[in-house]
Amino acid sequence: MTLLFVYGTLRKGEEADYLLNEAKFLGPTKTASGYELIPYQKDYTALITGKGKVAGELYEVSDKLLSALDNYEDDIYMRTSIKLEDGTRAEAYMMAPYKRVKVCASIYCKFSLDF
Questions:
Q1: Which of 21, 38, 47, 66 is buried most, with the most CB atoms less than 10 Å from its CB?
Q2: Residue 115 CB-density burial (10 A; 0-12 exposed, 13-18 middle, 19+ buried)
Q3: For 1, how many CA atoms within 13 A lie in the half-sphere containing its CB?
């Protein structure tokens, strides 16, 4: 089993929450300092490294479900280990570093492109 932090459409009440029906909901949480969300497309956001904390939810997911979620997520996201506010680590879908420049060029960006 793997801990998974979600912050967007996979959260309870959002459009893709059904994908986590078989996951164990562990509760609301926040990332440690060092992350932020930027807009991506019309209705989506992407997690990147930054200066703040991001609110989300924590789930325990099976390897099978994690593999299915990897296939569901757009190729702009990559799964990586992040640090949570309480010091534990969890997997999360972050914007892939090689995609940041393209997205930043199409929107107003206030974040650093250091990666």
A1: 47
A2: exposed
A3: 10
Judge contact between 37 and 45, C-beta under 8 A: yes
Just give the CATH number of 2-106.
Answer: 3.10.490.10
* Numbers of helices and strands, H then E, in the chain: 2, 7
Residue 58: CB atoms within 10 A of its CB come to: 21
pLDDT, residue 114, reads: 45
- Nearest CA to 15 out of 26, 3, 6, 5 is that of 6
Rg (CA), the chain: 14
DSSP state of 112: -
Confidence of residue 89 (pLDDT cuts 50, 70, 90): very high
Complete DSSP assignment for 56-99: EEEEEE-HHHHHHHHHHS-TTEEEEEEEBTTS-EEEEEEE-HHH
For the four alpha carbons of 54, 57, 63 and 65, in that order, the dihedral sign comes to: negative
